[in-house]
Amino acid sequence: xxxxxxxxxxNEILRTISTEVTKEQLKDVLPTGKEMLKWxxxxxxxxxxxxxxxxxxKRMIVVNLYEEEEGEWHIYKTLLMINPVITWKSQDMVLDExxxxxxxxxYGNVLRPNKIQLEFRDERFLLKKLELDSFSGRVxxxxxxxxxxxxFVDKVVGEMVMEG
Length: 164
Ligand SMILES: [Zn+2]
Fold this sequence. Notes:
By secondary structure, the chain is of the alpha+beta class.
């Protein structure tokens, strides 16, 4: 399966609110989820991918989770999340730069809660709970926005930077 990345701020698929994955649909969406995992792991840059970005309007994302060790951030896990829901957000907000595979070469600062708690279903449809902060929390929030038809460019504070 070759994944085609949807791009463009007015792309209809990217702007559609995605629907939940039912237990019955799991076997139908998992092959795409596995491809998304493989694709993300093959990328040097990029922290996450949402199903609408590969043309599927279902609530499924893949994300890299990061930890800091001796001042360096590195990926410690790449996770597939089905039906992710943020159940709690911290009051403290952090402004940091984001980019997106669907908005190539565009970068800008987005304000997001520093810490979140979330629930999602794993590959076996088991309910999982996680608390994430810093960069990992930001990645998950960015990807869940995709499931609601929201792009980071909608939320940029200040100037958008074009590169490349
Ligand atoms: Zn994105």
